């Protein structure tokens, strides 16, 4: 009986302290992530790899201008980039009166570690052809 209690306590501690899912939730305020950035006219989004979420991308104007310029290099109308960034979810966009309300919230891109034109082998890429 005592062994069963120990095993149960170990499992509880694992799930409370050591579970990757809970660690991810604890660290979700600010992460280093890779994902797909999409820019076209009035739409600017970030979709983290291994996620089914697409967020409205925000950040300081210098950083956002850098992303937009790189995204528009290929055709001048729209672009898809693969990013490795530091950033965080900053809240819901459901009450916004802009296109942002159609997405899973706001994601603030705080630092770009890597940026390049997205390739079809990248995570969750959108067909743009």
Automatic annotation (TrEMBL):
Pfam families: NlpE_C (PF17185). The keyword Signal applies. InterPro entries: NlpE_C. Keywords: Signal. Residues 1-25 form the signal peptide. It comes from the Bacteria. Residues 31-99 form the NlpE C-terminal OB domain. This is NlpE C-terminal OB domain-containing protein. It comes from Herminiimonas glaciei.
